[in-house]
Amino acid sequence: MFDLIFWPVLGGAAIIAAWAVLVGLRVFTPPEIIALHRSLALRGYRTSGSRVDRLGERWPVLRRLADNANVSRLLHVANRDDGVRTFLGKMLAKGLAAASIGFMLDGATVARGGGWAFPPYLVLVFAGALMLLDYARLKAAADRRREDAELVLAELFQPLAIVTHNKGVAVDTAVRLLSQAFESDAVSSLLQGERYRALVHDPSRFTPDLYRQIAREYRLPSMRSLGDGVYSVIANGQPAGDVYRAISRTAFANRLTDARQSMASAKTKVTIPVAGMLVPLLVLLGVPAVSELTRALGGG
Question: 0.85 exceeded by the pTM?
Fold first, then answer.
């Protein structure tokens, strides 16, 4: 009787706790409000934040985990509005909810006199995998964002050469305006409203150095090339058109090299999964055949 009441109640209480954490993390708060709070924080205004955010400031373990996993950098690169502790809190809440449901099912099964519905270690493994999946998705989103920014910058150098050399437009203005003409906002959202300040805490007023700082913090090689090109134009007096066209040719050559390398590795990437799919088929067909052959030889 005790097991019949204890395990379902414990699982239900854990689910309620996980739901309360999600509410405290402002999961159900409109994205516009969260974006407004983040914008105010970037401009130096202090916002109250959620209770879980304030509690997270007291958790040095979570802070070290975030620093080691580069969660803060990944969140900014992926253009997410969540804070580090909020993201980690959501991960923990999802894992807690998954573990609670698994243990509740186990408790209900044991209470009825049966065995475990799932091995306890399997419940913990599934909860941990669910949390790691969130991190993997964040990293994939950041990588896609970087790739989009690299593509935009590679396409931007040719029109930048025309606008700056023929029209005399300042390079920072030209980059900001031209980046808005692309379907992806990976570069325009970074420059508009100085969102790069999220990682570049002490931005330089010298345009080439600013682009180099952005490249270093957001890991954008093409932005580094842009900073070097702007420096060549400003400091060395080289023609803007020639410099940016040369950078454009280099960028496209690098993209072509990357494409060729991807094509060369495609055979291996395709062969290994196909071979892995064939192994179960061979086992499925081979085991009955070997069994029949052994039986026939034994009977003979």
Answer: no
